[in-house]
Predict the structure.
Amino acid sequence: MDCASCAATIRTAVGGMPGVSDVRVSLPREMMFLEVDEARTPLSKVGDAVSRLGYQVELLEDGSTETKHAARAPWWRTAKGIHAIIGGLATALAFAVSHVSPEFGHWFFIAAALLLSVPIARRAVNAAMLGAPFTIEMLMTIAVVGAVIIGEPAEASVVVFLFATGEVLEGYAAGRARAGIEALASLVPDRAFIEVDGEIREVRAADIKPGQIVLSRPGDRVAVDGEVVDGRSYLDEAALTGESMPVSRGPGEQVFAGSVNMDAALRIRADRTASDNTIARIVALVEEAQDAKAPAERFIDSFSRIYTPLIVAIAALVALVPPLMMGGEWQSWIYRALALLLIGCPCALVISVPAAIASALSSAARAGILVKGGVVLETLAKANVVAFDKTGTLTKGAPAVTDVFALDGDERQLLSIAAAIEVGSSHPLAEAVLAEAEARSISPAAATDVKAIAGRGVSGRTGGRDVFIGAPRFAAEMGTIGDSLARRIETFEQAGATVAVVVEDGRGIGAIALRDEPRADAVSGVAALRALGIETMMLSGDNPVTAAAIGRAIGIDDVRGGMLPAEKVEALRSVSKGRNTVMVGDGINDAAALAASGTGVAMGSGTGLARETAGVALMGNRVGDVARVIALGRATMANIRQNIAIALGLKAVFLVTTILGMTGLWIAVFADTGATVLVTMNAMRLLLSRGGRE
């Protein structure tokens, strides 16, 4: 299944079968859930019905609800891909022949239109027989047949070819999104080491049971959610919690599956099975949020339920009623009915929405903003609340030194000592200290016996003295922290900084404050949203003090820190009651929130999962592009409303004049092709927009 209308067609067709009830179709998981009375309708017949609609069926005998995706062939090997390629070649050949011989070209266009419409018409007929007559396939079939009957096969051929191409693109996009979710699950290792009766055994991670002791080695991804029973190490949890700094975890503290063990072995008691760990729950949240959103059916499909049947019915009445009941001339009234069929051909309507969307998407792409379709633009246009992640979204995603405090006043000497101990470390804080020393042209002092103290800090000797660098609580264990230094540490922490304390021979001699600084355009980007009348909020996994400090500096209206992925989802659901939300993030931990919001926006530098889950990717990593794409969405929806008014207005006028005999077939062609030209030209104005403002 590649689009919402696929799911709707299956739901309608299967739901109408005897004994079938509670039909739920999940587009992202490509799964259908239902209750069936097999005494009335065997389950095999349900599968046959879905197969007739053009989909492959697999029965999950064990009742499993885990996501299952079939291996996907390249698009050019799929049925829809082959259909689009053959159709493109046939249409191009017809155009070439028409330049040489218009008469032969006419017949080639008829052949191309019929060739392309066969698989679409087959699906339309099967859906109609199963109780879903007015699908988008039926709409296209009627449009093609009507255009061929009135002598416009070239238009019919091109329209149905574009439809086939669109189906291929939808399938590609849907497959990419599902691949992103599968990539998230792969963060948990396949194999793990457990301790049994004092021996270490390698097992499948999926087989680990609660209560078992799991060994996590330095450099490994943690295989389970659980509690540390022995050892201390720094863990990189950024992919899960959004915390910008590695965190120290020791006995009695919780660790999450998928986090990276950085520098020491840990023994972990498993709390949950693999199917219930943090990563598995995030995957479930993403899929459930996508299901709950249930994107509306494509505009043209829903409109065809009224427009196309109405025009076809009017055309039939015009052809039959006057000759049969009023003695009218058959040829004259059939001619008028054929003209009405052309007016009923929704070519202008079909192009009015995608023309505006295509122009908007092109305009956004030129600005480095990738938008995944018209539904995204429509929801962006309604946005009135924007929620941001902090790390890597509003901030640069890497710590930098903001302040240096030395008790003796010699900051350069303090940085020289710190750099000496940190040389060779890959820890983000160490890299920030070395970068600051280099920026100040400070050469690190010579150091010996340098070693990492797992989960606590780093120590060594320089200038004949013992030096330790670590967080304040661990520095206090290694030496004395005087009142003056303690007050300065408290000031740094209240400003939202992470503090590294330097202890020399058992005495604290200074502190270095580090913080993930805001992006250069964060303040102006938030101000631009406020100018659009949009509220802003921050949902961060970072500690609340740091999040509050960054939020105040940027001008965010509502700041919430210390949030896990599930808590971000709950916060968005609470805020979304009666309002339309946009979530902006960059990490794996943001994936569920991106899916749960009205529209997800991912920074281009973020993880692949964030970009695939989100509806928008900001490839330029500019916070200001959030306001720009929302303004573009508003301009696009205004343009679409104008296009629909043009298309329907012209058709309404010529519908009346054709029935009255005031206009004939040639003017009906103008009503269709003229409206198509007008709406296309109107849509192209979006290409000239700047930041979504025409």
The CA atoms of residues 81 and 168 lie 6 Å apart. The radius of gyration is 32 Å. The chain has 24 helices and 24 strands. Residues 292-297 have pLDDT under 50 and may be disordered.
